[in-house]
Amino acid sequence: MRNALDLAWPREGLTRVPYPIYSRADVYAEERARIFQGPVWNFLCLEAELPQPGDYRATFVGDMPVIVARDLAGTLAAFENRCAHRGALLCFARGGHGREISCVYHNWTYDLRGRLTGVTFQRGVNRQGGMPADFERSKHNLRTLRVESFAGIVFGTFSDATPPVETYLGPAIAERIRRVMRKPVKVLGYNSQMLPNNWKVYVENNKDSYHASLLHAFFTTFRVNRLSQEGGIIVDDSGGHHVSYSKRATDKPSAEYDATDLRAKRRDYRLADPSLLDGVDEFGDGITLQILTVFPAFVVQQIQNSLAVRQIVPRGVGETELFWTYLGYADDDGAMLAIRQKQSNLVGPGGYISMEDGAVGGFIQRALPGGEEGAAVVEMGGRGVGSETTRATETSVRGFWQVYRRLMGV
Amino acid sequence: MRNALDLAWPREGLTRVPYPIYSRADVYAEERARIFQGPVWNFLCLEAELPQPGDYRATFVGDMPVIVARDLAGTLAAFENRCAHRGALLCFARGGHGREISCVYHNWTYDLRGRLTGVTFQRGVNRQGGMPADFERSKHNLRTLRVESFAGIVFGTFSDATPPVETYLGPAIAERIRRVMRKPVKVLGYNSQMLPNNWKVYVENNKDSYHASLLHAFFTTFRVNRLSQEGGIIVDDSGGHHVSYSKRATDKPSAEYDATDLRAKRRDYRLADPSLLDGVDEFGDGITLQILTVFPAFVVQQIQNSLAVRQIVPRGVGETELFWTYLGYADDDGAMLAIRQKQSNLVGPGGYISMEDGAVGGFIQRALPGGEEGAAVVEMGGRGVGSETTRATETSVRGFWQVYRRLMGV
Amino acid sequence: MRNALDLAWPREGLTRVPYPIYSRADVYAEERARIFQGPVWNFLCLEAELPQPGDYRATFVGDMPVIVARDLAGTLAAFENRCAHRGALLCFARGGHGREISCVYHNWTYDLRGRLTGVTFQRGVNRQGGMPADFERSKHNLRTLRVESFAGIVFGTFSDATPPVETYLGPAIAERIRRVMRKPVKVLGYNSQMLPNNWKVYVENNKDSYHASLLHAFFTTFRVNRLSQEGGIIVDDSGGHHVSYSKRATDKPSAEYDATDLRAKRRDYRLADPSLLDGVDEFGDGITLQILTVFPAFVVQQIQNSLAVRQIVPRGVGETELFWTYLGYADDDGAMLAIRQKQSNLVGPGGYISMEDGAVGGFIQRALPGGEEGAAVVEMGGRGVGSETTRATETSVRGFWQVYRRLMGV
Amino acid sequence: MPADIATERDVERLLARYVASIDADRLEEWPGYFTERCRYQIITSENYEQGLPLGIFFADSQAMLQDRVAALRQANIYEGQRYRHLVSSTLILGEEDGLVIAQSNYMVARIMHDGATMLFSTGRYLDRVDLRGPGPLFAEKLVILDSRRIDTLLAIPL
Amino acid sequence: MPADIATERDVERLLARYVASIDADRLEEWPGYFTERCRYQIITSENYEQGLPLGIFFADSQAMLQDRVAALRQANIYEGQRYRHLVSSTLILGEEDGLVIAQSNYMVARIMHDGATMLFSTGRYLDRVDLRGPGPLFAEKLVILDSRRIDTLLAIPL
Amino acid sequence: MPADIATERDVERLLARYVASIDADRLEEWPGYFTERCRYQIITSENYEQGLPLGIFFADSQAMLQDRVAALRQANIYEGQRYRHLVSSTLILGEEDGLVIAQSNYMVARIMHDGATMLFSTGRYLDRVDLRGPGPLFAEKLVILDSRRIDTLLAIPL
Ligand code: FES
Ligand code: FES
Ligand code: FES
Ligand SMILES: [Fe+3]
Ligand SMILES: [Fe+3]
Ligand SMILES: [Fe+3]
């Protein structure tokens, strides 16, 4: 049983977020245990990244190094990337392939389920030294995660209390993940982005449909998205997961828009080469944008024909690494690849409509000093948590804090 | 009511400064609340930097981001540079000009007094979403500072207990500020300097007239300043502010000088191009050097015809950013500008007589490890706090700690 | 009397090392007081680095800056590198030479035993200012270390409880140090290496003879060392010091070797230019490798004809600076120097058989997150502490923790 | 056989003018260093070497480069910043259908408006330069980043 | 019309010798790279672009440069440090009253005596070079810093 | 009298190919830039200037360079990393027994497989180049590091 954090939540509850939550080192350490090692499913990798038995990859659960593998029987497994002997990283590359994993320091070896299979010189050398007679390798296996693959996405949890992934997600979120992962995917590219802010600031950013048309001018200017378009927010029962979606070319006139003077609205703005936005309705439902989050730190993105998953890895109280994995389908032809390549200009560290998300997080983090007594205000769309047909709401942000507070006990 | 810091001050009192005060993170956090947000006047900017109604600038109070503005009526105002919604920096440039300031994240807008004037989609979009009916913008204005301009210098305070600036400074300090700011100034240049030390180390350096002729050899060599010259220290009644001044070419013979072998004394040393030091007695009082500090972290400098203000901004326990603003008078002619330009070689990050101050701070900070039980000794000129006719004293350093301890409760 | 650390050691005792010991800031601060300023002998420098009276050098005890000097009478002395006035570093270069050391800030001067000999303007200037009449310089000398030179190596301690160096080391370790320092040495080169890990991780690495033939493939491949060679470990009675040694070309057949498939074993691998390993048995005892550690953080190395001392300086919880000083003998001729130069390729930051030690420390440090409840397992060679004739043991690692726990009270 | 000195100079001059325009924030000049039907891509060496097609930015026309500049000027929000490019070790690798193939090493420092400076990107330029026109132009420019990790965001072209 | 290769080389050689002298701590040679009535200024681009006249250091004679070196050697206290200059992308911008106007990009690393290394300064040189004498000399050298922020202090010339 | 432009180019091209091979992880090519009886040393300026003979790495034959590569490929354990070299300000210092003596400034960034990038080393190359053969080769290459401090380890040649 852990000690409770000395953190008083504002009496307004879910509509307030006390600023020190983004800057306190003790909160960060507590999240490691209560959130990431708690009753949650963490994104580990894609099945497509472990095609063969014997494949493994290094990944992270929170900031804890973890290895996810497909064992020789083809079963998925995951375990700490920390040798049971003296704690060295076992895999210090992106990944590998083999029958076993051995530690470079003293050559202890593990099978692809994290079981200790070999201790060098366990019986000593020339009958001298070695491990005590009563040393049992089986008592020194690596700490493992429970692993489940859902729609080609591999999740892991350290907790026995976590329900099956599909139950954890709830039907609506599960369905929207299946929508994107509807057939075998292939990775079209990787990169990562260091965000100068606490990891929760970026999670909120993804859940915050309110900002989309306001911060991202490129977005609005080309009607890729506008709050007045048909769309909405779905929040699962727990509140921790969400999907925000909208359709294009279904724009209703909106008094508010004509009333508000939005920086984001620049009617005159046109592309010299519009081929950037050429795309196809590959899902057949007219939905041009779907941003989906799974608690705590995973994002599935469809922006027109740009598909990606995003893994959010804390790198300290005020730093976060965002791992982008760009996807296509295994059966994409050259024309489809060309479309995805051009539309990749919309997202990623330099993307026309995601660039700003890299900046605002830092603006929030840098504004924390002196705000120790203050709190963010999260009242757009009311004070509750639930699905809505508008995206002028912060319902899914409140949902995040609902789960967070329960797990953290604050 | 805040908890007291667990910090035992040496029984010797003002003549000792316990070293952990420069390295403890909890002390740093406490200073944010008790010093910079306490009953003090913080430098914000110069009036000359806000010439027009609608002008605003980003500045800092301690390490808290703040905006100082001249509203449309021409009145000065200051408020936190942190959006009332989710806490993003409102101004992330040096400054700007406009009728209002809007946040890039969700476009909330504020007038130049920090009042929340607009919440985008407050009433929702197409009658969906939006803020709760009982949401009152007026309850979400930015936290403001009281602002006062004195002699063209804009100060701000978060405390109602702070007396008017002129009372705060006391007559002697006020008069010496007026001396420098005697007519409209113009900015001749900016830059900043990262000091590898706690902010208090650099404040003490400015208050420490003892070091001037000893550390700064260039100084002494050219008789720009020597302790044996006519001059002295004025400390205000609180002890927190000081002015140190001296006259040139009024050198009395000094046994101590001939006795002490000073590195700083190099009689043979001459300039190949003496035009560097050509100057005029523009104040008509023969004072060639005046260093003035206002508690907690502001300096006004006159060194011959080199005029500057220095703002000291903490950037963490062991780092400080020093902002230099070089000044001239609005009516300076070309000849006067040329003089100030050459004399600017004396000060700033590369200045002949300020260069060393950038180095010694780091020497103190780097010597802290292992000195946890130790304390600095501040006994030059006795153990009291008060004005003196000599500059072989640390009276104003003791004065700083007198105010600091009262505010910090240590 | 200091408060005890809130750190529960695993009940298994010496065979477990709880991972937070490598990452907790409070542990790091406590080590500064209890280990480095405790009853231990810290390496300061070599006598060869202070050949003349008046020579002094800046060094470190833990992360505390210290000056070690040979005074004008030729006696060795050491004292804090922190001015007694305001705490500035006195020596901010590698070292110097002179009758005294003066501080650049206010020119206080000290003799080479750390006694305050001069306070500038102590009596004021023109009978004004100055130190109080009752100020006694003798009360403001620098805090000194007790210094002892053993076999040309200068050690220092802050504790009166520390026994003489030779007693501290014990006969076996003392003898093995004398073996390397058997005649006057000269420095052949310097450099340092920043290790991305806690200092104790690197100390353990030196005490860990188990890893040598497994991590360092170059080593094994050329039989410079293999666990099956004649050799062993000597641990002193305290457990804190050790020497690990082996002889070459005394390879007994070993079932374990043929059984274990070692990455490190590449029989086919040959040097295109074997002159690298040309050497002479300059000690006449056939010992080709001797690694010796003195608690807490000092290493003496002989690898064939490559001689060096290594000083381990903590630079924060997760960073360590390793200072390499390469040695030869004063009477080395050109041929011997050429041998040492080529063999220097074996060690140092880029050395064929030390390179990996710079990497594995980081692997351990980076694997700490999420392992807060875990502990390293140190059971090779049993659970006790003592000398052994095999090097398939972690006996000297356990010895380190035996002394560490006693001093730290954990 | 090494390329002649004049060709090397032409390519080096083009690179020098290219980085001077970017570093001086004269982004409007940037598209002008390319042919109309050009190819420009910023891609990490990890993706490039594995044959993964997607990078950080891709354009296959000068017009798309103009759109990039227009977006940075009119639409996108990012903090004031400048680059400083250093380019060295230009090698002429050969010639193909009239285009000179050249490789150069670069380092780019990013300087924020507040003065914060960091080594933002390192890598190599793999260029196909058209020397046949009045002035040399990039028919293709691959910016191959050594690092897979971008700090904060990448707005200004490399 | 691009300047001829020989002129570019002359300027590049002058810059190479200039930085070699500074980086090797042969500061006494530094004033010798300037004409007697020269102009040398270190100024931040912020000030330079706003027309604010004051910078970090200003000299309008070779003698003032000699004084700088004398002060660094005899008077000023600062920790042992060296620079390493990288210079690239030199462009000949034109010619004015017999002086060649050239711009170059630079990066300077600062290496402290204890080995601590940082990217200390980036920016550009804006030079007026006199090629008429026996050897090329700087008649004017503007060091325009990209950053407004200096770490610790700036002692050694850039 | 400055060296002729062609000689400068030859040396610059050699340096460009040298760093291109290292930065592309084509280490097997590295020994080929040296003569058979060459001298290569990586040494800190602290040791070099004090006349202390030992450095970070020393080789007096091309075979020892081949052994270095073999060890890095087959024996040594270190984390995946690459370098990026920038080289500038090459100066021809003179000629001795048919070898051209040249000095250049360099900066090397180290990029770890996970993208972490740092300014790993700065310093100068002091080279003796043999231009008499079919292609230019290093008869001697001194890599003189400005810093006495190495981060983590130095595996790949500079
Ligand atoms: S740490 Fe992995 S085998 Fe020893
Ligand atoms: S954070 Fe400023 S409007 Fe939302
Ligand atoms: S700090 Fe050393 S003399 Fe003042
Ligand atoms: Fe967004
Ligand atoms: Fe000073
Ligand atoms: Fe080792």
Structural summary, described in words:
The complex is a heterohexamer, with three copies of chain A (about 400 residues) and three copies of chain D (about 160 residues). By secondary structure, chain A is α+β, with helices and mostly antiparallel strands. Chain A has two domains: about 40-150, Rieske Iron-sulfur Protein; about 185-410, Naphthalene 1,2-dioxygenase Alpha Subunit, Chain A, domain 1. Helix content of chain A is about 20%, strand content about 25%. Chain A has a seven-stranded antiparallel sheet with strand order 2-11-10-5-4-3-6, with no helix packed on it. A seven-stranded antiparallel sheet of chain A has the order 12-18-17-16-15-14-13, sandwiched between helices. In chain A, strand 3 (about 55-60) and strand 4 (about 65-70) form a beta hairpin. Chain A is globular, with a radius of gyration of 23 Å. Chain D has one domain (about 5-145): Nuclear Transport Factor 2, Chain: A. A six-stranded mixed sheet of chain D has the order 2-1-6-5-4-3. Classes of the chains: A alpha+beta (about 400), D alpha+beta (about 160). Chains in contact: A-B, A-C, A-D, A-F, B-C, B-D, B-E, C-E, C-F, D-E, D-F, E-F. One fe (iii) ion (FE) binds near residues 205, 215 and 216 of chain C. One fe (iii) ion binds next to helix 5 of chain A.
